[in-house]
Amino acid sequence: MGDEQQTPASPAPAPAPAPAPVAATSLGQGDEDHQAESDGAGATTTTAAGAGASTAAGASGEATKAGASKKQPVAIVFVGMAGSGKTTVAQRVSADLHQSNTPVYAMNLDPAVAKVPFGCNIDIRDTVNYKGVMKQYGLGPNGGIMTCLNLFATKFDQVMSLVEKRTDEIDYVLMDTPGQIEVFTWSASGAIITESLAATVPTVLAYVVDTPRTTNPVTFMSNMLYACSIMFKTKLPIVIVFNKTDVVSHEFAQEWMTDFEAFRDALEQHSEAHGEAYIEDLTRSMSLVLDKFYAGIRSCGVSAATGAGIESFYAAVEEARSEYDEFYRPEMERRRDEAKRLEEQHRQAAVARMRKNMKMDENIKTDVGSDAAA
Ligand SMILES: Nc1nc2c(ncn2[C@@H]2O[C@H](COP(=O)(O)OP(=O)(O)OP(=O)(O)O)[C@@H](O)[C@H]2O)c(=O)[nH]1
Ligand SMILES: [Mg+2]
């Protein structure tokens, strides 16, 4: 939620107040990790407010201390257009998990949000002061958010070590991101944050869509292209979360994703009504391109306001986690091995260059020799 607070999509009723997170306690009330969370990530711009940190995860951790065979937690990063409902969906999921005593570790990465409506263990606002950063660096709202994220990214290794310490006791890591989607998804700091998270625990992206605002086929296509580009950039499994289904059902969207004819008909109707033939051509070609993308992703419809459809969200996240295990993790390990191999290659090349520069004869014996016992 940035400075430009988005108006709700539609005649959106206020979301039903989700149950309060279990045992949210403020910083410094006996949870050492929380002290560290606030202290550890301190930057020059810190407000050291400490507010907003809660022990939501730790308090309910015992519920799933399942021992050695416990599955790793899954991290869900909420992204999506401004006002699509990222924060409200995160709030709903957090409340729902707390209600079923499922331990959660929640993070807020939106420095500009006025109030975080769920108990969070890590709050970027405890580390960087958005208004202060804007003033100090003479920035506008987006530059301010970007700089706050950059400052926070420099401390993210500390955040990850806190998460790592908790992996045995938590089942979900929830991460809410700033309203201006591009600030997170196309910035170096956003990449550092998602990559660090994905290197630590299975991570999936929840791309939240404002369903009532997506009934126009051209808007729908733009939204899907954005989701597609984020997936290709991060290479992480993605779940499309059609939100606000209390206002408009998501069925039309899922139909457009699976039935090209239906989408084409909607596009023709739209084009006739608005006389935008050039957009129709472009969108039609794009939708053919997107066919492959649709085949590989999963979607669900939820209402963060009422909680409807939340089960389908968990099911989609589980599928996405399997995809992470099957494709992302091996690919990440391959890239890591490749980076090691290249590093070794560079090292050997540097040694060879040095020998050459020193005009060392290949025959000169440079072995360290055998040890004394030999
Ligand atoms: N009717 C309805 N309204 C919703 C739902 N989810 C969110 N809203 C409303 O949509 C508006 C935006 O919700 P947020 O959760 O702040 O959206 P966001 O994506 O986090 O917004 P930014 O962080 O500013 O990008 C608020 O007025 C919410 O009350 C929903 O499921 N149904
Ligand atoms: Mg938000």
From TrEMBL:
Keywords: Cytoplasm, GTP-binding, Hydrolase, Nucleotide-binding, Phosphoprotein. Residues 40-50 have a biased composition (Low complexity). GO terms for cellular component: cytoplasm; nucleus. The keyword Protein transport does not apply. It holds the Pfam family ATP_bind_1. Its EC number is 3.6.5.-. Gene3D superfamilies: P-loop containing nucleotide triphosphate hydrolases. PANTHER family: GPN-LOOP GTPASE 1 (PTHR21231:SF8), XPA-BINDING PROTEIN 1-RELATED (PTHR21231). Belongs to the GPN-loop GTPase family. Small GTPase required for proper nuclear import of RNA polymerase II (RNAPII). May act at an RNAP assembly step prior to nuclear import. This is GPN-loop GTPase. The lineage of its organism: Eukaryota, Sar, Stramenopiles, Bigyra, Labyrinthulomycetes.
